[in-house]
Amino acid sequence: MVPSQDYGIYFAMFNFSMLFSILLDLGLTNYNNKNIAQNNHILSKYFSGLLTFKFLLSIIYFVITFVVGYVVGYDSDRFVLLLFLSLNQFLISLILFMRSNISGLHLYGIDSLLSVLDKVLMIIFCSILLWGNLITEPFSILHFVYAQTIAYIITTLAVFSIIIFKTKVFSFELNFPFLLVTLKQTLPYAFLVLTMTFYYRLDAIMLDLMLPDGEHQAAIYAQAYRLLDASSQIGVLFAGLLLPMFALMIAKKEKLDDLVKLSFSLLFIPASTLAIFCFFYGDNIIELLYDNYSPSSSNVLKILMFCFVAIAGTYIYGTLLTSNGSLKQLNSIAIIGLVLNLLLNLVLIPKYKAEGSAIASLITQFIVLVVQLFICNKIFNFSINYKYIFKVVIFFMLISVLILELKNYSVSITVSFLSVIITSAGSIFLLKIISLKDLLQLIKNR
C-alpha cells in the first residue's frame, strides 16, 4: 500500500534500529531461558532484578542508537521513524525476556500463543486502518509502525501479567553482586548476538549508504527479504521451543539424535522445498505481491530463499550449541560470518547492487551452517544415518520433478503451491522421513 521507496527507507531504518538491540538484553534472555529450564525455583528470586536491569539497559541502547544515527547523517524524518522503531525494539526485547521465563517453566502452549499475539494484534490494527475508514489521509509506513507499537505494548502487559501470576511477587530492585555475576556469564551470549545481528542486518544499510540509488536498491532487497523474514519466523519460534528442550536433555545426559533428526525434518526439509518452489516461481510471486516492482526483486528472492535453507539449519544446530554452552565456538563462527559478509558486500554491492548483497548473504549463511554442523558432530558425536539421507535425496528429487512439470505445463501458482504442499506432506510420511509416532511424542512433550 505504500511506495516501494518508503518501504525501502523503513527497511533500512528497521535494520539500523536492530544493530545495537543486543544492548537491550546483553544475552540475558538466552541465559535466563536455559537456566530457568534447568532450575525452575529461581524464577521468583531473580525476575524482578533482571527486569529492572533491562530498563536501565534500554537507556544505553537509545543513547547509542541516536548518537550513531546522528553521525551517519539521518535527517529529522528518519529520526522520527527511528524513534518508534527503537521503541519497538525495546518492547520486543522485553517481551522475549519475559517469555523466556514462561518457556523455561516448560509452559510451551502458553508461550506459543504469546509468541504470535503481537503479530495477530498488528494484523488486526492494520486491517482496521486499511479498510475501516478511520483515517482520511492515505495509509503510510508510519501507520504500520504505530500499529506495531500498540500491539507490542498490549502483548507486554499480557506476558507481564502471566509472570506475576506465576511468581506472586514483583518489585523494582537491583542486586548488583548478582547482576555482575550474571553479566560475566551472559556477555559471551551478548557478543554472539551482536555479531550475528550485524551480519544479518548490514545488507540493507550498506545498500542504502553505498549506492547513489541506495533507497531504490534497499527497496528491491526489502521486497524479497520480507518473505525470507516472514518464513524465518517459523525457525525463530521453533528455536525458542528447542532451546529449553535441548538444555534439559543435555543436563540429564539424554541422547539427542532423535530430537535433532526430527527437528531437521520439520524445519530444514520444508525450508528447502519452499526455496525450490521460489526458484521456479519467483517472478510469479513478486508479480502477485506488488503493483510496482523491479525485475531484480524476483532474482533477489530466488537467492534469499536459499538463504532460508541455511538459516533453518542454524536454528537447529546453533540452538543446540547454545544449549550446550558452547559460546566460544559460536562466537568464533559469528565473527567469521560477520567479516565474510562485510567483505563480500563491499565487493559485490558496487557491481551487482541488491543481487550482490543477496549473494553475499547466501555464501555467508551456508559457510556458517557447515561450520556449525562440523562442531556439533565433533561435540555430540552424532551417527550418520545413510538410510535417512537416501530418503531425503529421493524426496527432493520427487519434489523438484513435480515443480518443474507444473511450471512447464503453466499451472497457476496457487494450484502449484497447493500441489507441492500436499505432495510434500504425503511423501515425508510415505518415505518415513518423519515418524508419526515421534511427531505425536514431540507434540505430547512439546
Q: Which helices and strands occur, and which strands form pairs?
A:
Elements: H1 4-19, H2 28-38, H3 43-72, H4 76-104, H5 108-131, H6 141-167, H7 176-210, H8 214-251, H9 257-289, H10 295-323, H11 327-380, H12 386-408, H13 413-430, H14 436-445
Helix pairs in contact: 1-4, 1-7, 1-8, 2-4, 2-8, 3-4, 4-6, 5-6, 7-8, 7-11, 8-9, 8-10, 8-11, 9-10, 9-12, 9-13, 10-11, 12-13
Characterize the structure shown.
By secondary structure, this protein is mainly alpha-helical. It folds into two domains: 1-174, no CATH class; 188-384, no CATH class. It is built from 14 helices and no strands. The mean pLDDT is 86.
Properties at a glance:
446 residues, mainly alpha, 2 domains, 14 helices, globular
Give the termini distance in whole angstroms: 39 Å
Instruction: Characterize the biggest β-sheet.
Output: none
Share in helix: over 70%
N-to-C SSE series?
HHHHHHHHHHHHHH
Q: What's the number of helices?
A: 14
Proportion of strand residues: under 5%
Q: Which structural class fits the helix and strand makeup?
A: mainly alpha
Whole-number mean pLDDT: 86
Secondary structure tally: strands? 0
Shape: globular
- Catalogue the unreliable spans: none
What is the alpha-carbon Rg in Å? 22 Å
Count of structural domains: 2
